[in-house]
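Support request, please re-run this one:
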Amino acid sequence: MKSESDQDVKPEPEQDVKPQAKPEAVSSAASKPALRIEQDDDKDELAALDALESEAKEFNKDAEIDRILKAFKLDAYAVLDLQPGVPESDIKLTYRKKSLLIHPDKTTNPSAPAAFDALKKAQTVLMDEKQRGRLDECIADARMLLMRERKLTVDSPEIRNMDAETKDAWRRKTVEVLIDNEHRRRKQLKAQMQEEGREQRRVDEEIEVRKRKRDHEVAWEESRESRIGSWRDFKGKAGGGVADGGAGKKKKTKLKVLG
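Re-run finished. Output below.
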């Protein structure tokens, strides 16, 4: 038999015990919003960096376009920002880099087409042996003039190791020589055109003289039959007049000699 104490004790109802989350899972769930915030911040930062990089590229393009347009057009080295005497490979490489940088299709700068054309002309000059040779001669002449003005020689330290001021003076003297050569070239071209004009006028006059002579010969030949007919008519009239005149003439009486 059960005791009264055993009969009075009632079993407690079972309670639903929820499993407690592990500490690692709780911290992971709590960190997800923070991770998303960090990722969003990273995206914003990358976007800002991309915008700054794009702006820097546009600034470089605008600066290069402005430099090309301000360079002296007769000095192809200055347009390409190269030193005289560089190898052909450097000319090709520099032109490729700069042409890709300022290409009108890759920038909104309205001056890009003009700068691109100037860059192309400079590259054409330096890749042509004769044109580059003439340019190198002008640069060498400018160097000699500068040495003469400053009473220097090729062995002078100022020439062997040029500082920025001497290089700038050389560049200015090169501009003077190129301008002088261009003036003389244009003067010669004008004189040549005038001479060609005079020669052309002389040729035209000779052609006109030959044409008039030919036309005269053709007209003379075409009037040949008319001239022959007129001559025949004249001869006929002249012959008839002589016959009539002969019949109408009086006979002269002979005078008798008195004996």
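The chain has a mean pLDDT of 80. Residues 77 and 83 are 6 Å apart (CA to CA).
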